[in-house]
Structures are given as C-alpha cells and as structure tokens.
Design goal:
InterPro entries: DUF72, UPF0759_sf. The protein is of the alpha/beta class. It contains 11 helices and 9 strands.
Length: 276
C-alpha cells in the first residue's frame, strides 16, 4: 500500500533546492512527478538515464506523450513515434509509473475510435492513463460511459484534473487569472477505474483555501488505500511556489488517517550560502 504525491515540475525558483542535481533534491521531498517536458519533444536517452540516476527505484514518473502524437496526429498513424518515445524512456525502468495521454479539448466523444485503436496497439508492458478535456465527457453520461469502456479494455486509467477549488471564486492575482484562462473547467470526478488512480488537483494562491478544497480528496484517497489501490496525487497552485510543501502536507494528512502508509523521505538540505 503506497501513496505517491508530487508536483507538475521538479524545480522552481521558490523551492529550497541545491544549485545542482535538482531532481535528486526534489525526489527527497516527493515520490512522484509529472513529466511535462516530454510533451514538447521526445527526450534523449542520456537525459532519461540522468533522471533515473537521480531518483530511487521507488520514485515514480508519469510521463506525458509528445504533442506530435496526441495533438498533431490525434493518435493516428503514430506507431513509429510511440515506439521511439517508449524506447527513450526505457532507462526509467519501474520508475515509469504510467504513460500519460493528455488529449486536446477538441478531442471529442466522436474521436473515441482513435483512442481505442491506439490503446489496443500500444505495447502492453506499459501502464497508460488518459486525460480528456472535452466537456461532453464530463457532462454527457453516455460519453463518460463509452470512454470508461474504452479505457477498461486496456486497463487504462482516467486522469481527472480537479479545478473546482481554483474556480470556486474569481481570481485575485495575475497567477490565478492566468490559471483561470488556461485550466479546464470541468465537473469533478471521483471514480477510479484501476488499482492506480491518478488525480491532478489545483488550488489557489492561498494555502488555506487549497487545503480546505482538498478535504474530499483526502477522504477519497483513504478509501482507495483501504481498497488496496495505490493512488498518485499531483498538487498544483497557480504559480506552484507552495506546491512542494503542499504535496508533503497532503501526504502527512492522509498518513494521519492511515498510519501504516509508507513515509516520504527526509528532504535534502539545500546548498549552504557561500561568500563568492
């Protein structure tokens, strides 16, 4: 039984990190991370080898497929690109928790055939998790059911992006306003399809509002753990300055209800100040 928590990145100017090996430092705070950089291009194998070298074997990456696969080709005729990507991330070994298929908002229920074909042909040695943003998947029960059926055939998970706390009231800062313009406003989902549910949660600038908003998620994770699932929760804020501390706080809150939970590691101290 394990709970994975993390952020949308492994480095931030506001975080207490050393000047080098920032991923190693991050991995001493959290046990999972969203690998968003892979959306822009397939990483080099040497870069992935470096990621693996800086993280323990029980650390988990959720690696996003490149945009050429999901957004440009819309999952069609991408066998070569997918295999090149999977070969590049092979050095992660067991650290590769799931291949994250984030689909564009224009990917509608009528496009489910492309997703079904993609998942059917995808190599089975990997776990897959899908994030959709078209409103019909959240507002139309038939569309949601059809998506769940497609995912169930491949034992794939549906990744919800919970923006309820963010949109609970109007933005009060530039960061919140930017998040309001970019993040999807969709109905909250609480249903896990597999033994490895993944939730992306974004709060507000206020840590107190962020914590108040995740109360339901703490209860949900406790339930999932009691069912033998191993959930992964990614904590976001509009500027992510407090996301690292909030991720650890979330884990601590769940651990208070589940004392047998595997603890997080002890954070590495940042570099001491120098004179030069």
């Amino acid at each position: 039984m394990n709970l994975y928590v993390g952020c949308a990145q492994w480095t931030h100017a506001a975080w207490p990190q050393p000047s080098r090996d920032k991923l190693r430092s991050y991995a001493s705070w959290c046990n999972a991370v969203e690998s968003n950089t892979t959306f822009y291009a397939t990483p080099s194998r040497s870069s992935v080898e470096n990621w693996a070298a800086q993280t323990p074997a029980d650390f988990r990456f959720v690696v996003k497929l490149p945009q050429v696969i999901t957004h440009e080709r819309r999952l069609n005729n991408v066998d070569a690109e997918l295999r090149a990507f999977l070969a590049a991330i092979e050095p992660l070994g067991p650290r590769n928790h799931a291949v994250w298929i984030q689909l564009p908002a224009a990917f509608a229920p009528t496009d489910l055939g492309a997703l079904a074909a993609f998942l059917h042909q995808a190599p089975r040695e990997h776990r897959y998790a899908v994030e959709v943003r078209h409103r019909d998947f959240f507002d139309d029960p038939r569309a949601a059911t059809n998506l769940e059926r497609v995912l169930a055939r491949a034992n794939a998970e549906w990744i919800p992006f919970d923006t309820g706390t963010l949109f609970a009231r109007r933005p009060t800062s530039l960061a919140e306003r930017d998040a309001w313009m970019k993040k999807p406003r969709v109905t909250r989902r609480t249903r896990a399809l597999t033994g490895h549910p993944i939730v992306r949660y974004i709060g507000r600038d206020s840590a107190a509002e962020t914590v108040d908003g995740w109360a339901y998620l703490v209860d949900l994770v406790v339930t999932w753990l009691s069912e033998g699932r191993s959930p992964t929760i990614f904590l976001h804020t509009p500027d992510n300055a407090e996301a690292l501390n909030l991720a650890r706080h979330f884990h601590t809150t769940v651990a208070a209800a589940v004392p047998t939970l595997t603890p997080l590691p002890n954070p590495i101290e940042p570099d001491p100040p120098t004179l030069f």
